[in-house]
Amino acid sequence: MQPTIRRFTGTKRTVRVGPLRFTGDEHAALQEAAAEHGYKGESGFTADIALAFITGRFTANLPLSEDRRRTHMFRAQVLRELNRIGVNVNQIARALNSDLTPPDVRHRLDELRHLLDLLAQALCEPAEAEKEQAA
Protein backbone atom coordinates (compact mmCIF):
# COMPACT_ATOMS: atom_id res chain seq x y z
CA MET A 1 0.00 0.00 0.00
CA GLN A 2 1.48 3.32 -1.10
CA PRO A 3 1.28 6.14 1.46
CA THR A 4 -0.80 9.06 0.32
CA ILE A 5 0.29 12.62 0.74
CA ARG A 6 -2.18 14.71 2.69
CA ARG A 7 -3.55 17.33 0.39
CA PHE A 8 -5.14 20.51 1.61
CA THR A 9 -8.72 19.67 2.52
CA GLY A 10 -9.79 23.10 3.70
CA THR A 11 -8.85 22.39 7.30
CA LYS A 12 -5.77 24.35 8.19
CA ARG A 13 -3.43 23.05 10.86
CA THR A 14 -3.13 25.82 13.42
CA VAL A 15 -1.76 24.13 16.54
CA ARG A 16 2.02 24.25 16.69
CA VAL A 17 3.98 21.43 18.35
CA GLY A 18 7.64 21.81 18.85
CA PRO A 19 9.99 23.15 17.98
CA LEU A 20 11.65 20.00 16.75
CA ARG A 21 15.43 20.06 16.77
CA PHE A 22 17.73 18.21 14.38
CA THR A 23 21.45 18.12 13.70
CA GLY A 24 22.58 19.56 10.39
CA ASP A 25 22.85 16.13 8.79
CA GLU A 26 19.46 15.02 10.15
CA HIS A 27 17.81 18.19 8.87
CA ALA A 28 19.33 17.75 5.41
CA ALA A 29 18.11 14.12 5.32
CA LEU A 30 14.63 15.26 6.44
CA GLN A 31 14.47 17.91 3.72
CA GLU A 32 15.61 15.39 1.12
CA ALA A 33 13.03 12.80 2.22
CA ALA A 34 10.26 15.41 2.23
CA ALA A 35 11.18 16.50 -1.30
CA GLU A 36 11.32 12.88 -2.50
CA HIS A 37 7.77 12.37 -1.25
CA GLY A 38 6.48 15.51 -2.93
CA TYR A 39 6.34 17.88 0.05
CA LYS A 40 7.32 21.52 -0.31
CA GLY A 41 8.64 21.68 3.26
CA GLU A 42 9.58 19.36 6.06
CA SER A 43 6.94 20.46 8.60
CA GLY A 44 3.99 18.94 6.71
CA PHE A 45 6.00 15.80 6.04
CA THR A 46 6.89 15.47 9.73
CA ALA A 47 3.29 16.10 10.80
CA ASP A 48 1.96 13.47 8.39
CA ILE A 49 4.48 10.90 9.64
CA ALA A 50 3.48 11.60 13.26
CA LEU A 51 -0.25 11.30 12.42
CA ALA A 52 0.33 8.08 10.46
CA PHE A 53 2.16 6.67 13.46
CA ILE A 54 -0.65 7.68 15.83
CA THR A 55 -3.37 6.16 13.64
CA GLY A 56 -1.42 2.93 13.11
CA ARG A 57 -0.83 3.36 9.38
CA PHE A 58 2.90 3.55 10.04
CA THR A 59 4.89 1.63 12.64
CA ALA A 60 8.52 1.73 13.68
CA ASN A 61 10.66 0.36 16.46
CA LEU A 62 11.17 3.58 18.37
CA PRO A 63 12.07 4.02 22.05
CA LEU A 64 8.56 4.56 23.32
CA SER A 65 7.84 6.62 26.40
CA GLU A 66 7.45 3.59 28.69
CA ASP A 67 10.85 2.25 27.63
CA ARG A 68 12.42 5.67 28.15
CA ARG A 69 10.76 5.95 31.57
CA ARG A 70 12.08 2.54 32.63
CA THR A 71 15.55 3.41 31.38
CA HIS A 72 15.46 6.72 33.25
CA MET A 73 14.29 5.03 36.46
CA PHE A 74 17.05 2.40 36.16
CA ARG A 75 19.71 5.04 35.63
CA ALA A 76 18.43 7.05 38.59
CA GLN A 77 18.51 3.94 40.78
CA VAL A 78 22.07 3.11 39.71
CA LEU A 79 23.19 6.68 40.41
CA ARG A 80 21.60 6.58 43.88
CA GLU A 81 23.41 3.33 44.70
CA LEU A 82 26.71 4.69 43.37
CA ASN A 83 26.23 7.78 45.51
CA ARG A 84 25.61 5.61 48.59
CA ILE A 85 28.77 3.62 47.88
CA GLY A 86 30.71 6.87 47.50
CA VAL A 87 29.38 8.13 50.83
CA ASN A 88 30.50 4.89 52.51
CA VAL A 89 33.96 5.11 50.93
CA ASN A 90 34.30 8.72 52.10
CA GLN A 91 33.30 7.74 55.64
CA ILE A 92 35.85 4.92 55.66
CA ALA A 93 38.60 7.21 54.32
CA ARG A 94 37.76 9.90 56.87
CA ALA A 95 37.85 7.36 59.71
CA LEU A 96 41.18 5.90 58.58
CA ASN A 97 42.80 9.31 58.18
CA SER A 98 41.65 10.63 61.55
CA ASP A 99 43.68 10.38 64.73
CA LEU A 100 40.78 8.60 66.36
CA THR A 101 41.26 5.39 64.36
CA PRO A 102 42.31 2.53 66.66
CA PRO A 103 45.68 1.05 65.61
CA ASP A 104 44.24 -2.46 65.38
CA VAL A 105 41.90 -1.37 62.54
CA ARG A 106 44.86 -0.74 60.25
CA HIS A 107 46.36 -4.09 61.26
CA ARG A 108 43.07 -5.86 60.53
CA LEU A 109 42.82 -4.13 57.14
CA ASP A 110 46.34 -5.31 56.31
CA GLU A 111 45.33 -8.86 57.31
CA LEU A 112 42.21 -8.58 55.15
CA ARG A 113 44.26 -7.39 52.18
CA HIS A 114 46.66 -10.32 52.66
CA LEU A 115 43.71 -12.75 52.76
CA LEU A 116 42.27 -11.22 49.60
CA ASP A 117 45.65 -11.62 47.87
CA LEU A 118 45.78 -15.29 48.93
CA LEU A 119 42.23 -15.79 47.69
CA ALA A 120 43.04 -14.20 44.34
CA GLN A 121 46.10 -16.45 43.98
CA ALA A 122 44.03 -19.53 44.86
CA LEU A 123 41.44 -18.59 42.25
CA CYS A 124 44.14 -18.22 39.60
CA GLU A 125 45.83 -21.55 40.37
CA PRO A 126 43.27 -23.83 38.65
CA ALA A 127 43.55 -21.79 35.46
CA GLU A 128 47.35 -21.95 35.59
CA ALA A 129 47.23 -25.72 36.18
CA GLU A 130 44.97 -26.16 33.14
CA LYS A 131 47.38 -24.10 31.03
CA GLU A 132 50.30 -26.30 32.11
CA GLN A 133 48.34 -29.49 31.30
CA ALA A 134 47.37 -28.13 27.87
CA ALA A 135 51.03 -27.31 27.07
Question: What report would you give on this structure?
Answer:
By secondary structure, the protein is an all-alpha fold. The chain is built from four helices and no strands. The protein has helices at residues 24-36, 42-55, 65-97, 103-134. The protein is elongated and about 85 Å long. It starts with 23 loop residues before the first helix and ends with a helix.
Notable features of this structure?
single chain; 135 residues; mainly alpha; 4 helices; 0% strand
What's the topology here?
Layout: H1 24-36, H2 42-55, H3 65-97, H4 103-134
Task: Tell me briefly what this model is.
This protein is an all-alpha fold. The protein has helices spanning 24-36, 42-55, 65-97, 103-134.
Amino-to-carboxy terminus distance: 64 Å
Average pLDDT over all residues:
77
Helix- and strand-based class?
Answer: mainly alpha
How many strands, which pairing sense, and closed or not: the largest β-sheet?
none
Output the number of helix runs: 4
Helix content range of the residues, please?
55-70%
Q: Show unreliable segments.
A: none
Over all CA atoms, what is the radius of gyration?
31 Å
Number of strands: 0
